[in-house]
């Protein structure tokens, strides 16, 4: 079994693809993931990545935390990645950045025979730190996994996401 796994890994590594981290290149991607806060929210997002240099890229993103137990949010992030090319097919990057999130909590229920609805909104400014990795499947397609910790007053949370991106 070990030999089969090693052979599969070598076959994948030897496939010809090129790292999409050259200065001036861009990527547009779709993200899905999960925020491990007290509530636990699934997330959907869009991002854009622009390579300032072969190693440094800007990565603004827009993320929606799907409503769960009355809590949902929109987040705007501006992260910076420092990409280490492990091969022509794999890349690894630490990330750091800023976050602006708009949280909404809503509840509804019956009280004294009346149906009551209440909601509250709050805006928070925070920071992100994390790590990511990506596979350059083709010249135009990138698949990646990213883990980041979102540092926000009252809403700190680790986030795990998967990204599929189109490179141009």
What does this structure look like?
The chain starts with a helix and ends with a strand. A hairpin with a 2-residue loop joins strand 3 and strand 4. Helices cover 8% and strands 68% of the residues. It is mainly beta and 168 residues long. It has one helix at 2-14; strands at 26-35, 41-51, 56-68, 71-82, 84-85, 90-111, 114-136, 141-151, 157-167. It is built from one helix and nine strands, in the order αβββββββββ. Mean pLDDT is 88; it is low at 13-19. The chain has one domain (26-167): Porin (Beta Barrel), CATH 2.40.160. The protein has an eight-stranded antiparallel barrel.
Helix content: under 10%
Just give the CATH class: Mainly Beta
Largest sheet entry: 8 strands, antiparallel, barrel
Structural domain tally: 1
By secondary-structure content and strand pairing, the structural class works out as: mainly beta
